[in-house]
Amino acid sequence: MGGEEMPFWSGEKLEEELASCITTEGYGAENIDCASYTLHVGPEVFITPDSYEPNPSQNTKRKLAKDEAFNIPSGQFAFLLTEEAVSISDKCIAFISMKASTKFKGLVNVSGFHVDPGYKGRLVFSVFNAGPMPIKLQRGMPLFLMWLADLDRQTKKQKIHPPITDLDLKILDPIHGPIFSPQTISESVKSFKDDIKDEVHKVNNKVTGLIATVSILSTLVVGLVIFQINHSNGEVAKPSERKSTLDSEKSMSDTKNLDANKLPDKNKATDKAQ
After folding, report:
1. What beta strand segments (E) does 88-159 contain?
2. pLDDT tens across 18-76, in order?
């Protein structure tokens, strides 16, 4: 490569130029990681509400106390402000990303990946939690990385605007409401299935109870019918029994009368014989 100058800054050059690149007090060379500079989660955050948020329409940006923690739910976006304010000269350009340890949890940087020459102020990262679980972060957490590279010349095409110090509401409005991510839809479908199972279980219980009630009533009705039949048969049998008894008594009376009539004839015969 000969004596050509390499475009990306080394860790040594970062340390030499640090005072001109990082304008926030309290951060220094200890945040240099090889050829990159580590940036930290800052004082403000905005997170899109998930389905569990009671008042999603009232969701807004949130100011964080020192070391205050927060969660980015699965399937939701967040805007994160850096603790550091940076100053990119007209001779270089910066590239930004997140640490791999947090990326592996599913947090994805969906904002720009570079910082224009002439930019001054805090950086705003737009991230998306593509993982299955909430991701916990906190203010002051080392999360972002920044690399700087030289341009081939000093440029007049710079990013000129007032320094960013907080999250601008204009960038929050487009995603103010809840984001219906695949994870959220999956949870909603699961909840719907559980509700259907509960309703089916309730209906089954009602049907079981109804069948039991019908069985009991059927048993009672059948018993009542059998009782009525037996009772009716008994009422029919009683007159027959009375008639049979009367016939029997009459027959016995006739027999006695017959015997009484025969007795005088026998006496007469006895008298003639004498």
Report:
1. 92-98, 107-109, 114-115, 120-129, 135-138, 142-150
2. 888 887 776 788 999 999 999 999 999 999 887 666 565 567 889 999 999 999 998 88
Report the CATH superfamily, name and number, of domain 11-179: Deoxyuridine triphosphatase (dUTPase) (2.70.40.10)
DSSP state string for 188-216: HHHHHHHHHHHHHHHHHHHHHHHHHHHHH
Q: Give Cα 94 to chain centroid, integer Å.
A: 41
Q: How far apart are CA 191 and CA 52, in angstroms?
A: 12
Tell me the pairing of strands 92-98 and 142-150: antiparallel
pLDDT value for 149: 94
pLDDT value of position 2: 44
**Model confidence over 224-271: pLDDT tens digits?**
888 778 777 666 555 555 556 656 666 666 666 666 665 555 555 555
Query: Using an 8 Å Cβ cutoff, are 115 and 164 in contact?
Result: no
Q: What is the largest CA-CA distance in the chain?
A: 186
Q: Distance (Å, rounded) from C-alpha 127 to C-alpha 125?
A: 6
* Residue written as token pair 């990159």: 36
